[in-house]
Write a structure and sequence with these properties.
Helices cover 35% and strands 19% of the residues. It is α/β, with parallel strands linked by helices and 560 residues long. The strands form 6 sheets. Strands 1, 2, 3, 4, 5, 6, 14, 15, 16, 17, 18 and 19 form a 12-stranded mixed beta sheet that branches.
Length: 560
């Protein structure tokens, strides 16, 4: 019997009307609180958070992972299954996730709404456009670009140096052709010729600003602080200088409202914002997380990629901005990925190999050590089960985790939904009552260079950090502008603790190369670019888009 695909499972499921999900979380079904988008999606209005301000916060569970393979290790699937599992054991839970980007959907990973019987639905809508949030973010970003270039065209009263423009245009697609372009050609009326480029929307500072803003007025204030260029004498030019933040905020008015959907088991799910964790801060919006914490006793959220990226940024960027902290952490691991880190070729990952598994386990153990002893959080390892995992392999992972004083729980949510997440849910509930020694990796008053060094040494285990001349120059500029107190957003490959994607496992004798810095004053962090990391991905040789289709009845296939 053929195994059903994720999209087939989702399409066979009968969803509840979104009105029932709204009633489940205790909100009134009226125009003051809810803005429906059809029968199965709705936005929650900003007034809800204000009205619930006096309610106690629910427990917050952060889901992160080991260093992934290109296919990912099932963080979203685990997050959804855990939220369902918490309901199975009688807890009032919600899940708060990021919105999928069209880049990975059409690129290498396919759909990003969970998998198997641990999904959020409507799966096709969530993966394809959803409520239009990403398009609005791209439009706001590109409006600012248009106003910047128009200012130069119309006389350049601010004295902007066209060779020192830091803002890029944005599109939610993997398109390497747009990384570096020349525009404004064709004559005087066509604009001022200059070098330009695109970022994928999830890397746009506008995306980060949306996710880190608590209110519309804060959104507008942060947008105005965006540094878009420098003048000929080196003075920063902001979106406020171009009088752009009002129109940008108007475009983002509805985007600020979190999106409410449901899991296959009818657990309420808030899905809002979607920055990548390798080139941005990798967390869903503060407003969605805070809303969920007021509406549920247990909130499951995720941070992108592994614990050295998304979880570190959740701790050092999101928690700082939101004034929150996790009560427990789940580290997702797969036997397949651990064998990959032990040197097994991708085509042989289904074969039992205890020697390779043991060789790859240091990757997991380092992430566990970081979560426990650097971030100070009680944690559990969730082994995302595959049918090819053997009992001997699972036992070895559990034994090694126990040696570090951490339990490893088998998660079978892909195959069994919430029922397969009950054991994990029980362990998470126990951990939420454990002592919590939450800690940032660095202090606000540390220098830019010292913040980067602390991340590199404490989290990555780098031997040394090398700053390229351009990075040193930008660090000096950060000090001159009085922005040294801002946190760091590391832009680094997701496939290694180092900046070399081929250096798998748990390396510790390497140099982390910081080649450039970018001041994201609106988002409120400094981006540190390491290695060859880029903010516009490209499509693989065989993109997932080749398998996606729609029939004459409107049924979408091949999404995942």
């Amino acid at each position: 019997m053929a195994v059903k695909t994720d999209i087939e499972i989702a399409q066979e499921h009968e969803m509840k009307l979104i009105k029932e999900i709204v009633e489940d979380i205790g909100l009134p079904w009226d125009a003051n609180h809810i803005e429906p988008y059809g029968n199965y999606k709705t936005k929650i209005k900003a007034r809800v958070v204000r009205e619930l301000a006096d309610r106690p916060d629910g427990k917050l569970i952060l889901v992160t992972a080991i260093t992934p393979t290109p296919a990912g290790e099932g963080k979203t699937t685990t997050s959804v299954g855990l939220a369902d599992g918490l309901r199975k054991i009688g807890k009032k839970s919600m899940v708060a996730l990021r919105e999928p980007s069209l880049g990975p959907v059409f690129g290498i990973k396919g759909g990003a709404a969970g998998g198997g019987y641990a999904q959020v639905v409507p799966m096709e809508d969530i993966n394809l456009h959803f409520t239009g949030d990403f398009h609005a973010i791209g439009a706001a970003n590109n409006l600012l670009c248009a106003m910047l270039d128009n200012h130069i065209q119309q006389g350049n009263a601010l004295g902007i140096d066209a060779k020192r423009i830091t803002l890029k245009r944005a599109v939610d697609m993997n398109d390497r052709q747009l990384r570096h372009i020349v525009d404004g050609i064709g004559g005087r009326t066509q604009g001022v010729p200059r070098e330009d480029g695109f970022e994928i929307t999830v890397a746009s500072e506008v995306m980060a600003i949306l996710c880190l803003s608590n209110h519309i007025w804060e959104l507008k204030e942060r947008l105005g602080k965006m540094i878009v260029a420098y003048t000929f004498d080196g003075t920063p030019v902001t979106a406020h200088d171009l009088k752009a933040e009002g129109a940008m905020a108007a475009l983002l008015k509805d985007t600020m409202k979190p999106n409410l959907v449901q899991t296959l088991e009818y657990t309420p799910a808030l899905i809002h914002g979607g920055p990548f964790a390798n080139i941005a801060h990798g967390c869903n919006s503060i407003i969605a997380t805070k809303t969920a914490m007021k509406l549920a006793d247990y909130v499951v959220t995720e941070a992108g990629f592994a614990a050295d990226l998304g979880a570190e940024k959740f701790v050092d960027i999101k928690c700082r901005a939101a004034g929150i902290k996790p009560d427990a952490c789940v580290i997702v691991a797969t036997v397949r990925a651990l064998k990959y880190h032990g040197g097994v070729d991708k085509k042989n990952l289904n074969i039992e190999n205890l020697e390779a598994l043991e060789a790859g386990l240091p990757n997991l153990l380092r992430h566990v050590d970081n979560v426990k002893n650097v971030y100070g959080l009680p944690c559990v390892v969730a082994i995302n089960a595959f049918p090819t995992d053997t009992q001997a392999e699972l036992k070895l992972v559990q034994e090694k985790c126990n040696e570090l004083g951490v339990n490893a729980v088998l998660s079978e949510v892909w195959a069994k939904g919430g029922e397969g997440g009950k054991a994990l849910a029980e362990e998470v509930v126990r951990l939420c009552d454990e002592p919590n020694h939450f800690s940032y990796v660095y202090e606000d008053e540390d220098s830019v260079e010292d913040k980067i060094r602390k991340i590199a040494h404490k989290v990555y285990h780098a031997k040394h950090v090398f700053f390229y001349p351009e990075a040193k120059k930008k660090a000096d500029r950060v000090r001159e502008l009085g922005l040294e107190h801002l946190p760091i957003c590391m832009a680094k490959t997701q496939y290694s603790f180092s900046d070399d994607p081929k250096l798998i496992g748990a390396p510790d004798d390497f140099v982390l190369n910081v080649r450039d810095l970018k001041i994201s004053a609106g988002a409120g962090f400094i981006v540190a670019y390491t290695g060859d990391i880029m903010t516009m991905p490209g499509l693989p040789k065989v993109p997932s888009a080749e398998n996606i289709d729609i029939d004459d009845k409107g049924q979408i296939t091949g999404l995942f």
